């Protein structure tokens, strides 16, 4: 019965890939001193009674390397968008010009860069924890099917899960290194 055991490593890999994709989204929201529309993605605006992403209430543009503009479609939402940006913790002071909100991106000082690298590190650690939890799920599936499974088969599946885990943890570390280098670049 257990000789037929087949661990779905593809599914496990997809779920680990999901943790890495989530990490990339979180890291994209960190400000690096360069303007980027993705830094506004996590910000939600209370529009029409429900939280709405900024890119669904206006057009987000990056006309200059240090400027992001948002052309809000509904004039009644301009102040709500401005308030959401101020309260987001990005450290950006929005400037209004009719229905256009301009976000000048200030230079990051050394202290703020170090803080951002720590935040990036905490995001990466969350991704590592998610991947380790998925590893544990895979190992639990192997242990449940252990009855009747040969020791060699058990070791084979455990090694496959560990190899998948190691490769994804390495990818998290590389992604973090790249982001930290980007943050610390003056």
Automatic annotation (TrEMBL):
Its main location: cytoplasm. Signal peptide: none annotated. Keywords: Cytoplasm, Protein biosynthesis. It comes from the Bacteria. Residues 24-184 form the Ribosome recycling factor domain. CDD domains: RRF. Coiled coil: none annotated. It is found in: Cytoplasm. Belongs to the RRF family. NCBIfam families: frr. Responsible for the release of ribosomes from messenger RNA at the termination of protein biosynthesis. May increase the efficiency of translation by recycling ribosomes from one round of translation to another. This is Ribosome-recycling factor. The gene is frr.
């Amino acid at each position: 019965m257990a000789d037929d055991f087949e661990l779905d490593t593809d599914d496990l890999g997809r779920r680990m890939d999901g943790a890495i994709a989530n990490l990339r989204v979180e890291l994209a929201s960190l400000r690096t001193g360069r303007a980027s529309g993705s830094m506004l993605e996590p910000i939600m605006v209370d529009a029409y009674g429900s939280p709405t992403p900024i890119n669904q209430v206006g057009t987000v543009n990056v006309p200059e390397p240090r400027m992001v503009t948002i052309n809000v479609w509904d004039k009644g939402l301009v102040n709500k968008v401005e308030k959401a940006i101020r309260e987001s913790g990005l450290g950006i002071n929005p400037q209004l010009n009719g229905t256009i909100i301009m976000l000048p991106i200030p230079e990051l000082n050394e202290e703020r860069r170090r803080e951002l690298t720590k935040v990036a590190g905490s995001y990466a650690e969350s991704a590592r924890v998610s991947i380790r939890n998925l590893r544990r799920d895979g190992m639990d599936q192997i242990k449940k099917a252990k009855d009747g499974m040969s020791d060699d088969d058990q070791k084979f599946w455990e090694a496959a899960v560990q190899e998948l885990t190691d490769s994804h943890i390495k990818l998290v570390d590389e992604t973090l290194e790249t982001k930290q280098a980007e943050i610390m670049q003056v």
